[in-house]
Fold Epithelial splicing regulatory protein 2.
Amino acid sequence: MASHSDTLVVFFGATAGANGGKLGSDEREIILLVWQIVDLHEKKVGKLHRCLVKPDTLELTDECKEETDLIVDDLTKADPLDKVLQQFQQSVQAELEDLGRNSFTLCVDGPQVIRQALHPEASKKNLVLPECFFSFVDLQKEFHKCCPNAGPGEDLNISSMLEYLGLSSVSEHASGLLDVRNMVQLALHIMAEPLNHRFSCFESVKYKFESGTCKTDPVDSETVIRARGLPWQSSDQDIARFFKGLNIAKGGVALCLNAQGRRNGEALVRFVNEEHRDLALERHKHHMGSRYIEVYKATGEEFLKIAGGTSNEVAQFLSKENQVIIRMRGLPFTATPQDVLSFLGPESPVTDGAEGLLFVKYPDGRPSGDAFVLFSCEEYAQNALRKHKQILGKRYIELFRSTAAEVQQVLNRYMSAPLISTLPPAPILPVMATPPFLATANTRDCVRLRGLPYTAAIEDILEFMGEHTVDIKPHGVHMVLNQQGRPSGDAFIQMKSSDKAFMVAQKCHKKTMKDRYVEVFQCSTEEMSIVLMGGTLNRSGLSPPPCKLPCLSPPTAYGAFPSPAMLSEAGLYQPPLMASPRPQPQHSGHSATPALAYYPPQPHLYMNMNYTAYYPSPPVSPSTVGYFAAPPGAMASAVSQSHHPGSAAAAAAAHHAHAAAAHAHAHHAHPGSSPMMASAHGSLLRMQGLPYSAGVKDILSFFQGYQLPPEGVIVLYNLSGQCSGEALVAFPSEELAGQAVLERSHHLLYGHPIRLAFCT
């Protein structure tokens, strides 16, 4: 239809909101379509057509009423968009037959009416657009090509083009008719002598998004955006649908993952050129379902960091074109390719059988429980997705749509993932005593437990140890938690002597805990540290960390306790380090309470590490199982302010801390949370009903517009290290906190209604 069309159909549209260069930027529906045929051979024009369109929402902005001279009553009896598009096709085809022509191409004044209004609205209403709307010519670009001295193409409009050619605007008052008649006049003039222009800059709209691998070639930063606020289950096809009408580069959607390998609601999208990127930015805060999506500029480097870096294994897996990718999560660690194929069944055959499976493993070869599967068509993928949360072995399996970029990202993350980051230990302030469990002696008086059930608590470990529990050093149990404060399946235990550690390793190795056998290895404190940095420890000996340590060397400047004002947002979202705990201060009113150790927040100042950091739980011993993983946030605030007696708010903060601590007594604060800076009594809110996967960043997004600092949020965890579904949030004033209660109570966060209440 493109370069050999016999006719042009000059096409104009208006919406119920912004029009002109901002057409479609406010998601308003189309209310007016106007068109007229131009015969390219005979230089004749056809009948002028004007059709009103009834929107689903009968509401017009003042700007629209002024520009179109339309009111709501004019639209009540109009046909909906699908009927008007049928009328358009029928009338154009009838005129083509009368003229003896075979094909036509749309001609528009700027791409907005096609790319920003028609395609997005049709996508939301599940309308199938005729083929003619996937190719068009832009009169502004054709005019700029014909008359390059008329000025920059982006500054051209109908009035400026008429003025450059010395033409007068036609006399017409009806909305839309004036625009089309002037466009026809311009088209005929540039095709006539002496310009003799031929329309040749045909633009296309892609029918569907092409998935695929991203090459590591440099990516133009002027073509990349970051979309934020996406539903966690959205796929690359869902994102492509959100940007319908704009052309995304092949494999140009990269879903971002958090440190646990789960989607964090963000994606980087690469468009074919800067023009499409700029149009994408106009869709800032457009909606995907009931959620509005934020759209910002991003860089090519950011895109490559997420979507690039394909290993040979991934490249071979993704070498098959046009495959649907499904991610499986929660597989038993003993699952084989045949187990997965049997689970999926004959109704969803995997491409090339076992060759279409990619298991995700740690650097030492241990399975992670994740796998990616290739299907040759959408039908097979849909059949597989119906098995979401069905049982394989004794575990339910989660299935999600995935992308090539996600495959690369997950494999890169797991294959370069030491257990904790390689930053140097934070310097200890003089008031903090280094506890004995961080001693660096090489005595093999420790044991490592590997393969613990994720539901295992301290009590389960003590029961597992049995008679050897009495030989554990005070504060010698260290569960290794992941970034969300949940057990990672590992633990380290310090015994009273190397002989005791040897006996435990001999007698408890491969004993069962909750239907899982647990491996027990004897080790030293030094070996424990190396393992926590990603090394491997088993009966064959010790292997160094698999990561390339020289590539991960941190900056030399590293502060132990930077002030909140110095911390960047990125820094506050980084996982905490393995740091020396400091004793909780004693208070006169609670002198009988034993001193408990907790880990102070240690923000990362080195942000470019692409692996998951782990950190140990606070040390525990059989006599102190009822420990606090960390003091409540306000208590941390009081502790930190106690080092600055000159602070005017120190006394008030300490008073408020006791109130918050009493309120949060049944929960634990996340060990890596930042201290909560409550400024006045009554400005602390308790959030209830949080999704268990919610973190600080999700809570800040929930309170968007209130300008809350990240250090003002504490996520509460229970004794098992699992999210309790509650959090404490500090507001700078009681008035602002009250406003938040009124405006945000019972609003949804990932589908969960959130309850807000004052902590009094």
Q: What stands out?
A: The mean pLDDT is 76.
